[in-house]
């Protein structure tokens, strides 16, 4: 069900000059971060390393007294990460990790209304690659950390701030590497927040809720391979690797995995029903989810496993039948469904299709406890009429890495968004942008959360 906490009704920024200063600088910080081209193509030969952005973050933290640790992760020079710890009042209590990634996906300037690395502010929005994924949260975190350091505020418990490389390629050269090689940097942390949650959605007649991410589907990048007999394209040739692979890929692409509702999704649907009166019968769940509008793309992807073919590769000449054909498939797997997914995949593809994969596991935590109450209270202090709901993300974040250290991980990058903004379409999209007012709102919420949780 939704969380409802009696909020404090105060206009804190009007009476707190330190908070006002953080609000005033968050847009500048975000704009300057966007101007660093940290494009992560996944290819060491073509990516733009995070080091300049990481050095910028370290400089900004150093200005207000933080001692920072700079680490280059992985085997490619320049994959910069910055970690800083702010000691809390209760050093025996489990610490909080606040993490964000500095890399972004590629952007083609010819497709954009503004240059994707301009960090332009126009029409009350901040534009640029990373504006929502996730230099907005990085800037809010940096602005809040600077406020805490500048004003000498001691939080209730230790806070570790981490600004990371390589999330957009799965974190192998970033969070995964740090967890494997430098786990002491996160010692004592039992909970973590980062993307993608804490943002508002509006249902029906203006009913607003904030979605706190409590789960992520697992990621599996699958390589399919068929081996057969090579031959001349002019001959009758029944043992054709391309044909066999194409048939298998088409069958998999058209396959619908069964609906399975885990705790996070069921609690989300129950919460929406409570707020709106809408029902979500399992015998027509896809149709019912369509009522969620733009949000239906996200929620619809969290009620079943998904396997989407994305790439095909075979042959080297038009008149040569190749002996090998390959396909890439992006698989997203619900928590607890790994074994069932493997069994079903084998049934769909059959024994003649080779399979190999790399991936990251699903993660899930409960929508309960002191940290959830604190997130809800911090949001509702700024937006008293709203509610908070848990949800599952269909993609993946660095939470998959930090959960290996035993942390309960949440998506909490607070933003109050216009009701008509298709926020999910902006992730990795053309003309990525975030409302300036949303950045200021998020900074106030994050400040309240870090000072009280």
From TrEMBL:
It holds the Pfam family Peptidase_M20. Residues 214-340 form the Peptidase M20 dimerisation domain. The keyword Hydrolase applies. Keywords: Hydrolase, Metal-binding, Zinc. It comes from the Bacteria. GO terms for molecular function: hydrolase activity; metal ion binding. Residues 1-23 are annotated as: Disordered. SUPFAM superfamilies: Bacterial exopeptidase dimerisation domain, Zn-dependent exopeptidases. The keyword Hydrolase applies. Transmembrane segments: none annotated. InterPro entries: ArgE/DapE_CS, Bact_exopeptidase_dim_dom, Peptidase_M20, Peptidase_M20_dimer, Peptidase_M20A. Its cofactor is Zn(2+). PROSITE patterns: ARGE_DAPE_CPG2_1 (PS00758). Belongs to the peptidase M20A family. This is Acetylornithine deacetylase/Succinyl-diaminopimelate desuccinylase. The lineage of its organism: Bacteria, Bacillati, Actinomycetota, Actinomycetes, Actinopolysporales.
């Amino acid at each position: 069900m939704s969380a409802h906490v009696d909020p404090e009704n105060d206009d804190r920024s009007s009476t707190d000059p330190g908070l006002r200063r953080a609000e005033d600088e968050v847009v500048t910080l975000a704009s300057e971060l966007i101007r660093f081209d940290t494009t992560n193509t996944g290819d060491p030969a073509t990516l733009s390393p995070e080091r300049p952005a990481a050095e910028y973050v370290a400089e900004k933290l150093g200005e207000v007294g933080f001692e920072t640790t700079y680490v280059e992760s992985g085997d490619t020079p320049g994959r910069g990460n910055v970690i800083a710890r702010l000691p809390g009042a209760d050093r025996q209590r489990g610490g909080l990790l606040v993490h964000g990634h500095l890399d972004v996906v590629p952007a083609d300037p010819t497709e954009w209304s503004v240059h994707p690395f301009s960090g332009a502010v126009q029409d009350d929005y901040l534009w640029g690659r990373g504006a929502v994924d996730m230099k907005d949260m990085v800037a809010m975190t940096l602005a809040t950390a600077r406020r805490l350091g500048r004003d000498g505020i001691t939080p209730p418990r230790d806070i570790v701030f981490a600004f990371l490389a390589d999330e957009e390629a799965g974190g192998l050269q970033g969070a995964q590497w740090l967890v494997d090689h430098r786990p002491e940097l996160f010692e004592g942390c039992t909970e973590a927040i980062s993307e993608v949650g804490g943002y508002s959605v509006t249902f029906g007649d203006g009913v607003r809720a904030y979605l706190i991410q409590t789960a992520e589907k697992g990621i599996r990048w699958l390589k399919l391979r068929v081996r057969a007999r090579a031959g001349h394209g002019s001959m009758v040739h029944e043992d054709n690797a391309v044909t066999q692979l194409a048939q298998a890929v088409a069958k998999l692409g058209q396959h619908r995995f069964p609906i399975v509702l885990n705790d996070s999704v069921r609690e989300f649907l129950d919460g929406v029903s409570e707020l709106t009166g809408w029902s979500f019968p399992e015998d027509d769940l896809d149709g019912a989810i369509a009522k969620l509008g733009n949000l239906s793309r996200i929620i619809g992807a969290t009620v079943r496993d998904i396997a989407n073919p994305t790439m095909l590769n075979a042959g080297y000449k038009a008149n040569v039948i190749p002996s090998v054909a390959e396909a890439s498939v992006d698989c997203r797997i619900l928590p607890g469904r790994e074994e069932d997914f493997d069994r079903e995949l084998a049934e769909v593809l059959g024994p003649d299709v080779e399979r190999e994969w790399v991936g990251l596991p699903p993660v899930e935590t409960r929508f309960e406890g002191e940290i959830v109450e604190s997130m809800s209270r911090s949001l509702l202090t700024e937006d008293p009429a709203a509610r908070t709901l848990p949800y599952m993300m269909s993609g993946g974040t660095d939470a998959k890495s930090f959960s290996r250290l035993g942390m309960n991980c949440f998506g909490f990058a607070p933003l109050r968004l216009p009701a008509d903004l298709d926020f999910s379409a902006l992730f990795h999209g053309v003309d990525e942008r975030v409302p300036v007012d949303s950045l200021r709102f998020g900074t106030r919420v994050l400040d309240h959360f870090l000072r009280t949780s």
